[in-house]
Fold this protein.
Amino acid sequence: MGPDDWRPVPILPSTDPAATAAFWESLGFRVVDASPDSTPYLIAVRQGAELHFATDPDVTAAAARAACYVHVPDATAVHAEWSGLGLPATGPGSVGRPEVRPWGLLEVWVTDPDGTVVRFGSQV
Protein backbone atom coordinates (compact mmCIF):
# COMPACT_ATOMS: atom_id res chain seq x y z
CA MET A 1 0.00 0.00 0.00
CA GLY A 2 1.48 3.30 -1.08
CA PRO A 3 1.24 6.65 0.71
CA ASP A 4 -1.46 7.86 -1.69
CA ASP A 5 -3.65 4.75 -1.48
CA TRP A 6 -7.01 5.09 0.19
CA ARG A 7 -7.94 2.63 2.91
CA PRO A 8 -11.39 2.73 4.49
CA VAL A 9 -11.55 2.08 8.22
CA PRO A 10 -14.99 1.29 9.65
CA ILE A 11 -16.02 2.63 13.04
CA LEU A 12 -18.30 0.06 14.66
CA PRO A 13 -20.29 0.26 17.91
CA SER A 14 -19.19 -1.30 21.18
CA THR A 15 -21.31 -1.39 24.31
CA ASP A 16 -18.73 -3.32 26.34
CA PRO A 17 -15.13 -2.53 25.36
CA ALA A 18 -13.69 -5.38 27.45
CA ALA A 19 -15.91 -7.95 25.70
CA THR A 20 -15.20 -6.40 22.30
CA ALA A 21 -11.43 -6.49 22.90
CA ALA A 22 -11.50 -10.07 24.19
CA PHE A 23 -13.52 -11.29 21.20
CA TRP A 24 -11.35 -9.71 18.53
CA GLU A 25 -8.14 -10.72 20.35
CA SER A 26 -9.41 -14.33 20.33
CA LEU A 27 -9.57 -14.02 16.52
CA GLY A 28 -5.92 -12.96 16.36
CA PHE A 29 -6.37 -9.19 16.20
CA ARG A 30 -4.13 -6.88 18.22
CA VAL A 31 -6.46 -4.52 20.09
CA VAL A 32 -5.40 -1.22 21.64
CA ASP A 33 -7.33 1.55 23.35
CA ALA A 34 -6.56 4.75 21.45
CA SER A 35 -8.87 6.96 23.45
CA PRO A 36 -7.70 10.45 24.37
CA ASP A 37 -10.05 10.39 27.37
CA SER A 38 -11.77 7.92 29.70
CA THR A 39 -14.20 6.59 27.06
CA PRO A 40 -12.54 3.62 25.35
CA TYR A 41 -11.96 3.82 21.60
CA LEU A 42 -10.60 0.49 20.42
CA ILE A 43 -8.54 -0.23 17.34
CA ALA A 44 -8.27 -3.88 16.25
CA VAL A 45 -5.54 -4.66 13.70
CA ARG A 46 -4.60 -7.83 11.87
CA GLN A 47 -2.59 -8.23 8.65
CA GLY A 48 -3.42 -4.73 7.40
CA ALA A 49 -7.12 -4.85 8.33
CA GLU A 50 -8.14 -2.23 10.85
CA LEU A 51 -11.46 -2.08 12.69
CA HIS A 52 -12.33 0.77 15.06
CA PHE A 53 -14.86 0.47 17.88
CA ALA A 54 -16.46 3.52 19.47
CA THR A 55 -17.90 2.95 22.92
CA ASP A 56 -21.60 3.69 23.23
CA PRO A 57 -23.29 1.73 26.02
CA ASP A 58 -26.75 2.70 24.73
CA VAL A 59 -26.50 1.60 21.09
CA THR A 60 -27.51 -1.77 19.66
CA ALA A 61 -26.12 -3.23 16.45
CA ALA A 62 -29.64 -3.34 14.98
CA ALA A 63 -30.17 0.34 15.70
CA ALA A 64 -26.66 1.26 14.51
CA ARG A 65 -27.10 -0.81 11.32
CA ALA A 66 -23.35 -1.34 11.34
CA ALA A 67 -21.65 -3.92 9.16
CA CYS A 68 -18.24 -4.36 7.59
CA TYR A 69 -16.56 -6.38 4.83
CA VAL A 70 -12.89 -7.40 4.92
CA HIS A 71 -11.26 -8.93 1.86
CA VAL A 72 -8.83 -11.69 2.87
CA PRO A 73 -6.57 -13.90 0.72
CA ASP A 74 -8.27 -17.17 1.81
CA ALA A 75 -11.60 -17.18 3.68
CA THR A 76 -11.43 -20.97 4.04
CA ALA A 77 -8.16 -20.70 5.98
CA VAL A 78 -9.62 -17.93 8.15
CA HIS A 79 -12.63 -20.11 8.96
CA ALA A 80 -10.40 -23.11 9.69
CA GLU A 81 -8.40 -21.05 12.17
CA TRP A 82 -11.42 -19.54 13.90
CA SER A 83 -13.64 -22.64 13.92
CA GLY A 84 -11.18 -24.28 16.31
CA LEU A 85 -11.92 -21.66 18.97
CA GLY A 86 -15.18 -23.27 20.05
CA LEU A 87 -17.30 -20.22 19.20
CA PRO A 88 -20.98 -20.74 18.35
CA ALA A 89 -22.13 -20.83 14.70
CA THR A 90 -24.84 -18.20 15.19
CA GLY A 91 -25.66 -15.27 17.45
CA PRO A 92 -23.40 -12.79 19.24
CA GLY A 93 -19.78 -13.89 19.50
CA SER A 94 -20.10 -16.38 16.63
CA VAL A 95 -18.27 -17.49 13.51
CA GLY A 96 -20.40 -18.77 10.63
CA ARG A 97 -19.53 -21.42 8.06
CA PRO A 98 -17.98 -20.38 4.73
CA GLU A 99 -20.49 -19.88 1.95
CA VAL A 100 -20.08 -19.12 -1.75
CA ARG A 101 -22.24 -16.07 -2.45
CA PRO A 102 -24.08 -15.42 -5.75
CA TRP A 103 -21.52 -12.70 -6.60
CA GLY A 104 -18.76 -15.33 -6.68
CA LEU A 105 -16.98 -14.71 -3.37
CA LEU A 106 -16.47 -17.16 -0.53
CA GLU A 107 -17.52 -15.46 2.71
CA VAL A 108 -17.33 -16.17 6.43
CA TRP A 109 -19.51 -14.16 8.81
CA VAL A 110 -18.38 -13.11 12.26
CA THR A 111 -20.89 -11.63 14.68
CA ASP A 112 -19.24 -9.75 17.52
CA PRO A 113 -20.59 -9.60 21.09
CA ASP A 114 -22.72 -6.55 20.20
CA GLY A 115 -24.28 -8.29 17.20
CA THR A 116 -22.29 -6.38 14.57
CA VAL A 117 -21.66 -8.53 11.50
CA VAL A 118 -18.24 -8.46 9.85
CA ARG A 119 -17.86 -10.54 6.69
CA PHE A 120 -14.49 -11.89 5.60
CA GLY A 121 -14.34 -12.88 1.94
CA SER A 122 -12.05 -14.11 -0.80
CA GLN A 123 -12.20 -15.25 -4.40
CA VAL A 124 -13.45 -18.80 -4.89
